Amino acid sequence: MATRLDLDRLAIDEIDARLAELFEKRFEVVRDIIDYKVENRLPILDSSREKQIIETNVSRIQDDDIRVYFRKLYADMLDLSREFQDDILREK
Hints:
The protein is an all-alpha fold. It has one domain: Up-down Bundle (Chorismate Mutase Domain, subunit A). It is flat. The chain has 3 helices and no strands.
């Protein structure tokens, strides 16, 4: 018989699988964005856009206790996105 811990771990595994799928899809779009930026000679970093993305997504979090952690997650994801874009540019 599965314990509550076992069930919670299964739920986390399912969520993590969905997060991995969405992360990969997000970075596929990032590839398109870097192509556009290169074609139009735009900088990788758009600070105002990043702030907007963070604020928009943080506002979707209803639980005040985790909002600060979600903000950190998004900031880290945007850092990784810029790093990915830098790597793509170095290959071109």
